[in-house]
Write a structure and sequence with these properties.
alpha/beta; TIM Barrel; three-stranded parallel sheet; 4 iron, 4 sulfur cluster binding; 4Fe-4S; iron-sulfur; FO_synthase_su2; iron
């Protein structure tokens, strides 16, 4: 569906509606939201702690409709995980394997290129590429991987490598992050996913992912990427040992960097899946926690264009509800997702365009297929075009 057909609904503010809540802490927050004032750290804590989650959701939906009307975005994408061999041993991870582990794998270049095209008939607009921190694969391997994908699929946008992977590749190659990013850009990387941010709080990070770069290095890597013209996403892993203060701190750090660079496109809250990790004694998140996190993210990240309800993590049903709690994006078809399914995710490996459109439409929203840069995609039987 062409984006032009949605005007003027998607550019109008939601109809005026009296805000009601039984939680008096939300009244001053609502006044700020309705007058488009920025929320504070204290406001964020109140949103997390309010028992009136429907009122929190109403405010988030108000902002979502002010920004996007009824539009909900999705894309046709393909996940590629070239290797699960990783030098890190993060307690949050069920995906990574040490070198020599029988369950470890590393694709040869030809295997990775074949995986990009296998089992799929529709025209993909995005390859989403992340993997482990392999102790032996040089930067040249990844440059060849990207270059080969661009040669074979010149119209596909390549969203590749988290800030953690980029910093690791730079260190191994004895290059600066900027030099590494320039090489990746020259090979064909178009943008970056938002993974590896986890939780920025030092206390939490030292327990769940002490082998990864710290918060400041993650943010500095993103800053460098944005200054070079890359767009990226940002994430937060929630539902493990973090507290409300940690979550608010994480959102505020992302908001501050976005004020500076304007390089983030989408924020993606990721629910922690404890199965098959060293933290498997922790409970899984509830649906209430998931939709609250979407709502608080939309309200606190006033400078982020998009909030994604990642259906792979929170299930299609909860993601559908999240479209009324601040989310305007469902991610995409995915096809084969390894990282969260290794951690026990019971969601499907992929959804079709038809299934995604049904989820969106039944939520009372308007499905709009996008490319990675949120340009609308119009399809015919044999091809597709991207709005410019």
């Amino acid at each position: 569906m062409a984006h032009e057909t949605l005007k003027p609904r998607d550019q109008e503010a939601p109809a005026a509606h009296p805000f009601r809540t039984y939680d008096p802490r939300l009244e001053p927050i609502a006044a700020k939201v309705l007058s488009q004032q920025r929320l504070s750290a204290e406001d964020g804590l109140a949103l997390y702690r309010s028992p009136d989650v429907l009122a929190v959701g109403w405010l988030a939906n108000y902002v979502r409709e002010r920004m996007h009307g009824d539009v909900t975005y999705f894309n046709v994408n393909r996940h590629i995980n070239p290797t699960n061999v990783c030098v890190a041993a993060c307690k949050l991870c069920a995906f990574g394997r040490k070198k020599g582990d029988p369950a470890g794998y590393t694709m040869a270049l030809e295997e990775a290129w074949a995986a990009a095209a296998s089992g799929y008939t529709e025209a993909v607009t995005e390859f989403h590429i992340v993997g482990g921190l392999h102790p032996d694969l040089p930067l040249a391997f990844f440059l060849d991987l990207i270059h080969g994908l661009k040669e074979r699929f010149p119209k596909v946008h390549i969203k590749a490598f988290t800030m953690v992977e980029i910093a690791y590749l730079a260190r191994r190659a004895k290059l600066t992050v900027e030099e590494t990013l320039i090489k990746l850009r020259d090979a064909g990387v178009d943008s970056m996913p938002g993974g590896g941010a986890e939780i920025f709080a030092v206390r939490v990070r030292s327990i769940i992912c002490d082998h990864k770069i710290d918060a400041e290095e993650w943010l500095e890597t993103a800053r460098t990427a944005h200054k070079l013209g890359f767009k990226s996403n940002a994430t937060m892993l929630y539902g493990h040992i973090e507290n409300d203060e940690d979550r608010v701190d994480h959102l505020l750090k992302l908001r501050a960097l976005q004020d500076e660079t304007r390089g983030f496109q989408t924020f993606i809250p990721l629910a922690f899946h404890p199965e098959n990790t060293p933290l498997d004694h922790l409970p899984v998140t509830t649906g209430l926690t998931d939709i609250r996190q979407i709502a608080v993210s939309r309200l606190m990240l006033d400078n982020f264009p998009h909030i994604k309800a990642y259906w792979q993590m929170m299930t299609p049903k909860i993601a559908q509800i999240a479209l009324r709690f601040g989310a305007d994006d469902l991610d995409g078809t995915v096809i084969e997702e390894k990282i969260y399914h290794d951690a026990g995710a019971k969601t499907p490996q992929g959804l079709t365009r038809k299934e995604l459109c049904r989820l969106i439409t039944e939520a009372g929203r308007i499905p709009v297929e996008r490319d990675t840069l949120y340009r609308s995609v119009t399809r015919t039987e044999e091809s597709f075009t991207v709005a410019v």
